[in-house]
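Journal club prep, notes for RB
We'll compare a predicted complex against what the paper describes. Inputs for the beta-D-ribofuranose case:
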Amino acid sequence: MEKRNIIIDCDPGHDDVMAVLLALANQDRLNILGVTTVAGNQTLEKVTNNIRKLYTYLGISTPIASGAAKPIIRELITAGEVHGKSGLDGWDFPEPSIELDSTNAITFMYEKIIEAEGKVTLVPMGPLTNIGLLIATFPEVKEKIDLISLMGGSIYAGNVTPYAEFNIYVDPEAAKIVFDSGIPIVMSGLEVTHKAAITEEEIEFLKQTDGKVTKMCGELLYSYTRYHHSEGYTSYPLHDVCSVMYLLHPDIFEYKDLQVEIDTSNGIHRGRTAADNRQWAKYERPNTRVLIDVNREKFIDILFKAFAKLNEMCK
Ligand code: BDR
Ligand code: CA
């Protein structure tokens, strides 16, 4: 089977790390051209440090380039209350020794996309600042991007506000560029990511299982649950994992094709991914495949197998 070229754009972040691990374990199917970082869950410096620390710990890597330190026009909002002071609290990583690519993420993505044999899939799992800037600066890349499989948005209810999901809320102007770009989009929003949740028992299982990667994931996810307790969660959404999982196993998801529009106002609707979801709504050209459900058991099983595979790869 031909490998799919991908670039992951992330702000690690606990769930970002789980998503990157799933991709790393599936390099027989995914050709990872690089991982780019964007400010979101924490500052750019911290999230970039986190991916470098992860790669140093694993002893495997892909090219990494850091991108935007703040949204296109707004001030940065971070999610330290969810992911901790470092953005990736819960595991004692070694100091990072993996070097960053010297190019800024926007130029890095542009060069990788233009040089790539065949088309490239973008997999954003943080605010869409880097991707928005890429499309606005180098619109010619649109021809070579076959799909954007992103984590962000929600059709029914938000998390950071009643209407908006964090990644879109942080940089709605960037999100608007992406959703209006004409590039096919698969959106893993909160409808599906809240169903892609891991239970306490499953996290405990990871913690108790030997293996360099599995144990680390158990401890990281345990730390990730701390915030969710105060919010009343009893299982914990692995949001960003959906964006990679869809590329590998689209068959375990259900979806609707909708016309999604981004609200860039400053009021209560800021960052809303608005769509007419009425049964009789008709779209001439839906711009987004919105994932709405997932087979949770299969999802967890595939993810745990990926961790086990990485235990062997990273001995
Ligand atoms: C999104 O926000 C971040 O905290 C997570 O990493 C995920 O990308 C969920 O709203
Ligand atoms: Ca993220």
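Talking point for the session: The chain has one domain: 4-313.
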